[in-house]
Design a protein that fits this description.
By secondary structure, this protein is α/β, with parallel strands linked by helices. It contains 14 helices and 14 strands.
């Protein structure tokens, strides 16, 4: 069986989508000896402008051929992302022209990769398997509110409708996505294989020795965009916790400059901003932290998402401070009940949640969480679901 896989991100790029796809490819290798061949079309590492990982433009591993398309430099803005998508789409069209596969798979957070995969699958008359990691149209409906670009929403909805209805099977990473997807594509079977915990984080690990003069370290690691809204809450909370806690924020994104400006405006001195780091370094950072921090902006679309960072954080055994609502809050209540959850953008509630964690008993037993959400087992089930689509 010949399988075409489309993904914007793949290792060694630093992103949740990249690591998820690597785990899925690892799981699909089980069918290698049965004749599975994969062409994976991705991009050269580009997740963050501030960090570059080198990768070959083409790798031939026999059963797996990886094609990486070079994208223009970008800083994460909408115009930059649009230019990058056009370059990726043109590259995919060039690499797929005149070729044929038995199945097309695409993982998509920004919709257009799903639309591109749907067009290719329709052109070849083969099944399409979509892995939906975000609901782009719902996000844009709020993010573009009151802006001229909102006139593009009907176009995005049309792409979404054609893509989802073209699929033979759809996977979503959050059960909160199911009502929307089912409303758009009522006849397409829907699965939910979520992100899960990468093997790298399953070991948990100890923490560094603390000294008597240490303030608790609150760590955030990830994207710093409008979706996270760090610039709208961290400066105020950090200012109020001066002399009681310190923050370390690791990452990059479209709102990092806004965050830096807000910290400077409030003369905040207990926040350390670091660029993205490798995953091995990230594990060490988690071990050093006293509290792991997660936050989503206060948008209706984010009330149905399940942040991939939850699985990493939960695996460490560290106390978790989460500014989330809706499905993510319900998930935490069920699987990580020791976490302190507060309403997004509520600085007072975040401060109170911090106090709750500092005074809570430790250590935390998350054995059941680790067993339920090990990524390798989730990806094994997803891989079996993919090849089952063509009876392989």
């Amino acid at each position: 069986m010949r399988l075409l896989m489309l993904t914007n991100f793949f290792t060694p790029d630093l992103s949740a989508g990249s690591f998820r796809m690597q785990a899925l490819v690892n799981a699909l290798e089980e069918w290698r000896d049965k004749g599975l061949e994969i062409d994976l079309i991705t991009t050269r590492p580009n997740r963050y402008a501030s960090i570059k990982a080198d990768a070959l433009a083409f790798e031939d591993r026999g059963w797996l051929r990886i094609h990486r398309i070079e994208l223009p430099d970008h800083k994460g803005g909408m115009a930059d992302q649009a230019r990058a998508y056009v370059r990726y789409a043109l590259g995919v069209r060039r690499l797929s022209k005149g070729k044929r596969w038995d199945l097309v798979f695409a993982t998509s957070s920004r919709l257009m990769t799903a639309g591109l995969a749907a067009r290719i699958a329709r052109g070849m008359g083969v099944p399409l398997y979509l892995d939906i990691r975000d609901l782009f149209t719902l996000n844009m409906d709020e993010l573009l509110s009151g802006k001229p670009l909102k006139i593009l929403l009907p176009v995005f909805r049309g792409v979404e409708r054609r893509a989802l209805r073209s699929a033979a099977r759809i996977n979503v990473v959050s059960e909160g996505f199911i009502p929307h997807v089912r409303a758009v594509a009522p006849r397409v079977p829907i699965q939910c294989f979520t992100n899960g915990i990468d093997d790298l984080f399953l070991s948990g690990g100890g923490s560094r020795p603390k000294t008597a003069n240490d303030f608790p370290l609150i760590l955030y690691a990830g994207n710093m965009g409008e979706g996270q809204g760090l610039h709208r809450i961290v400066p105020e909370v950090a200012h109020s916790l001066a002399g009681r806690a310190r923050f370390r924020l690791i990452g990059d994104g479209g709102k990092r400059h806004s965050l830096e400006a807000a910290l400077k405006l409030q003369d905040v001195l207990n926040v350390e901003l670091l660029p993205p780091v490798s995953r091995d370094q990230l594990v060490e950072q988690y071990r050093e932290a006293d509290i792991l921090f997660l936050h989503l902006n206060d948008l209706n679309a984010f009330r149905i998402v399940l942040p991939s960072k939850l699985f990493e954080y939960g695996a460490t055994g560290r106390p978790l401070l989460a500014g989330v609502a809706g499905y993510a809050a319900n998930f935490i209540a069920q699987y990580l009940p020791d976490a302190a959850v507060f309403e997004p953008l509520d600085a007072n509630a975040m401060t109170q949640a911090f106090e709750q964690l500092i005074n809570a008993p430790r250590p935390v037993d998350r054995t059941a969480f680790l067993a339920n959400f090990a990524r390798h087992s989730i990806m094994q089930r997803m891989a079996a679901d993919i090849v089952d689509l063509v009876g392989f």
